[in-house]
Amino acid sequence: MNAIHDTGCLVAGQWLTEGPRAERVGPYVRQVVSRARTAQADDITTALGYARRSARTIARLAPATRADILERAAAALTDRGEEFAGLLALELGKPLKDGRGEVLRVADTLSVAAAEARRIGGEVLPVAGWARGVGNTALTQRAPAGPVLAITPFNAPANLLAHKLAASFAAGNTTIVKPPPQAPAVSTALVELLLDAGMPVEAVQVLHGGGEVGARLCAAPEIAVVSFTGGVAAGHAVAHAAGPKRVLLELGGNAATIVCEDADVAEAARVCARTGYSNSGQSCISVQRVYVQRSRFEDFADALTGEVKALAVGDPLDPATDVGSMVDDAAAERVVRWSAEAAGAGARITAGGGRDGAVMAPTVVVAPPRDARVVREEVFGALVAVLPYDGFDEVIEECNRSSYGLQAGIFTHDVRRILTAWRELEVGGLIVNGSSNFRLDHVPFGGVKDSGIGRESPRWMIEDFTVTKTLMLKGLTIWGDQ
Predict the structure, then answer these.
(1) CA 166 → CA 50, 82, 177, 309, 470, distances in Å?
(2) Residue 10: φ, ψ to 5°
(3) Is the pLDDT of residue 151 over 50?
(4) Which of 128, 169, 242, 271 has its Cβ near the most Cβ atoms within 10 Å?
(5) DSSP for 437-464?
(6) Would you call 9 a catalytic residue per the annotation?
(7) Burial (CB count <10 Å: 0-12, 13-18, 19+), residue 475
(8) Nearest-CA neighbor of 121 among 172, 162, 70, 54?
(9) How far is CA 213 from CA 13, 119, 408, in A?
(10) pLDDT of 244-273, one tens digit each?
(11) Average pLDDT, whole number, for the chain?
(12) Hey, is 31 helix, strand or coil?
């Protein structure tokens, strides 16, 4: 029997533990693994007022102070990696190897945010280049935007919270965190770690709850910036509720990977198997559609099927497990249903196709119709569809038919194809000789179309979490006055 992790709401510097609670049942262990005290209306009002009052306190912290805190947190997390990986396995069914990878990324993200905090500055503007500017000097600085609302998803709850909270703090803002209901314990544990590392209590608050809590926070005038990661429909609701605020949306994906005729098919299949089913495919850049040049199509399909059948499926607490469970039974059942629909329309299921509770057997769908849901919509599950193509222009067009545009991958050694794909694919990023599912946390990440607005990673998020303030010195010049 695993211990139940009880978490509270952090409001105005106090952990609130009494009151209504929501239970999280682990999708693999099938028992309650965490309980979260849910935010009430009065809690939200108190948190918003405290955020408004705390904004100046955090803004006055020197960048070096913020950076030191983030670096201490990164070091502390390295020592507690197994604890965090275990929480991810219990709450989400994420295999330990994936959880350990996420924890390493969290530490990197905190360190990168610390480095970016030290680089925040401004510039001297060349006002004397125009006649009316002669005799004057203008300077800019990046100033904290104000209270930030961070709404985080279940699929990478620790790392995506680190991106939002660390960047917001590095920029000099206070932050209200609304964690996912599926991962309250690991989200709270990361906030507690940051507080233990010296983050002031004025810098962060935590409000657990569902969409109604998020909607009220989004609409609040005290909030200056909303940063949301989640589904498209929820993202649209966030934008509507937020109104004329700065809103950053990292939404869904339907990621495509192209395998050209000059590719190493065995290597491409190995990479797509590893990155198509990590975290049970519950990633916005997980490999979903693989387009293979027709002359290599059957070879790739056979190779991918073999690699997928070799994946270890089951207990997420077993270090050998490659694929654990999905977030819940309903999510796994949806993927089973969509794969069956594709098979009914003529596709071949060469691996998987079923589930055991929330554990979805890694599924390969070969040659589904172009209008099948496994091709057209975001699967967000342990399924990869493999489709043939003939011409390169054709496959670019096929990839772009999706309403999403987050990331894509391409396997080729042809520089012309690489540059053409980079230019023509309607995505925020292209991975060469890798699948769509690769990300460095210090590189800009985000999409186009229904995949969202803005770019994540600390440097780019700090730009969105700050505002440009101008200082005009009339009659004072560093340029010369004639």
Answers:
(1) 19, 21, 12, 39, 25
(2) -100, 110
(3) yes
(4) 169
(5) ----TTS-B--EETTEES-BSHHHHHHH
(6) no
(7) exposed
(8) 172
(9) 19, 35, 34
(10) 999 999 999 999 999 999 999 999 999 999
(11) 97
(12) coil
CA distance 3 to 105: 26
Alpha carbons within 13 angstroms on the beta-carbon side of residue 113 total: 35
Q: Using CA atoms, how far apart are residues 437 and 290, in angstroms rounded to an integer?
A: 12
Take residue 374 and report the two structure tokens written for it. Answer: 């496994």
Residue 68 has pLDDT above 50, yes or no: yes
Amino acid symbol at 32: V
Q: Say how far residue 254 (Cα) sits from the centre of its chain.
A: 14
Asked if 418 contacts 200 with a C-beta cutoff of 8 angstroms, the reply is no
Angle at CA 321, nearest 5°, toward 317 and 323?
Answer: 105
Q: Give per-residue pLDDT as tens, 158-189.
A: 999 999 999 999 999 999 999 999 999 999 99
Q: Which two tokens stand for residue 258?
A: 């192209």
Cβ neighbourhood burial of 141 (10 Å; 0-12, 13-18, 19+): middle
Cβ contact 385:374 at 8 Å: yes
Question: Using DSSP, how many helices (H) and how many strands (E) does the chain show?
Answer: 15, 25
One-letter amino acid of 434: G
Instruction: Report whether 47 contacts 176 (CB < 8 A).
Output: yes
Q: Give phi and psi for 162, each to the nearest 5.
A: -60, -45
Strand 363-366 vs strand 359-360: parallel, antiparallel, or unpaired? unpaired
Q: What is the pLDDT of residues 78-129, one digit of tens each?
A: 999 999 999 999 999 999 999 999 999 999 999 999 999 999 999 999 999 9
What is residue 245's DSSP assignment? S
- Per-residue pLDDT of 406-442, as tens digits, reads 999 999 999 999 999 999 999 999 999 999 999 999 9
- The two tokens of residue 188 are 């709270």
Query: Which residue in 202, 284, 399, 456 is the catalytic one?
Result: 284
Which residue in the block uniquely carries the two structure tokens 């913020």?
66
User: Of the listed 71, 250, 307, 378, which one is catalytic?
Assistant: 250
Q: Is the pLDDT of residue 1 over 50?
A: no
Asked whether residue 481 carries a pLDDT value surpassing 80, the answer given is: no
**Residue at 87: amino acid letter:** L
Catalytic: 284?
yes
